[in-house]
Amino acid sequence: MGHLFLGKLPKTYRWKHVIQLLDENSGVAEIAETSFWAAQNGFKKIPDDLGFILTLTNIFKFIEAAQSTNFEESLNNIGFKVEKGASYFDVISSFKDKIDRDLNQHHALTDVSEIAQNSFTQNLTKYISNETLSLFESTSKTVQDSIQKQLKGKSFKGLMHEFYTTFTTQYLKYYLSRELPNHVGKNLRFDNISQHSDFDRAFDLFIRQTVRITDEFTPGWFGKSKFEGNLDHESVSKYTHIAFKKIRNELKRGF
Q1: What distance lies between CA 35 and its chain's CA centroid?
Q2: What is the pLDDT of residues 88-111, one digit of tens each?
Q3: Residue 231 DSSP code
Q4: What pTM was computed for the model?
Q5: 74-98 burial: b if 16+ Cβ within 10 Å, else e
Q6: Cβ within 8 Å of residue 143, ≥6 positions away
């Protein structure tokens, strides 16, 4: 996770209970539930995390620029320093540099801002890689066309779904993932690595289905805010409170 400082496993009853569930061969839903409740205090604070808001604001600004008729010019106009003929990696580097500058300026580097940034770039890279033959060999025009394609319409909706899936999964599993390998082996929760992988897939599916609650809300909010010229820090902060309230409520409903 780079330069994150999340510390050791929390010594709380709920996190101890997570580990106990693993030893007792509990199902993935029960482990997911306990994991969520153990992390709920931190999860509630995400919409008030300045680093996360700054990161998400930059993500939406980047998407807005990508949807314009002049991609490079629009990016430069809002502080993403992209030279003419930039490669995909140049574009992503400018995206990360812009976020890092904002976070450093406001002393707002946090674990959730890092997870958010990585979740977006990870999924955008995956989408673009599937679209182009090679990120290393593609021309600037090909890359820009592909980025713009992935950030419009149904593709945008799908990308944001993957963003929230990845972010929520990584956030809830950050500590749990450090403990799971200790439960792989004979007479343990997972007899082998394959069973461990099965657990990961089941947990990921659980989260993926849960964050669908944002699928219609996010594109609708983004389109309205873009049209009204309100893609600013205040607007994104209000959106984040609503989005994460929806996710929290859906997680609770699913348990």
Answers
A1: 18
A2: 888 899 999 999 999 999 999 998
A3: -
A4: 0.82
A5: bbbeeebebeeebbbeebbbbbbeb
A6: 87, 88, 91, 128, 132, 135
